[in-house]
Amino acid sequence: MSCNKIITITRQYGSGGHDIGKLLSEKLGIRFYDKELISLAAKESGMSPEVFAKADEKATSSLLYTLSTGLYTYGNGFSAMGDLPMNDQLYILQHKIIKEKAEKENFVVVGRCADYILKEYDNVVRLFIYADLEVRAKRAVARHDIETSRARQAVAKADKNRANYYSFYSGQKWGAPENYDLCINSTKLSVEQAADMIMDYLKITAHS
Asked: Is the pTM here over 0.90, yes or no?
């Protein structure tokens, strides 16, 4: 199946969104971007990837500071990057990189407000992956070495961080179905099944 689309994946913590996106990119034969965007942003800025990793998908703590810099408009010609909080520097760089990539290649991208950043592109399919809390808590224990007793709390905190990040930079509600083309509950699906479901959706909508 040929693909002329960009796939953005917004996901609840522990829903398997990363793995689903990775497999989907392999099935489509296109690039996959998640943590890779941190490395690309670091390379462009000359900053350490480790420094950016700590700020990844976290909103700036001071909304007033960001508004006072005029950053909230996120237009072109950013200046005085070094004066901005690290979170904002990373968002700006990833914003720029995602748009540049969208002009020349097809890819699957996880998180980073990519669905919002590419909102004016008509070749973007926006997905939201979610799952029951219990399933996500178990995955957090198995995949991220989180203690069982605090797994639910860790999942809730991660979701809150992602929701704050998304709403801060996009002004939209994270997880609101109207922001996406397809929402998938991965609770009873394997990664393979979820990816195949998305492939079926892409085939159905290929000529729409």
From this structure: no
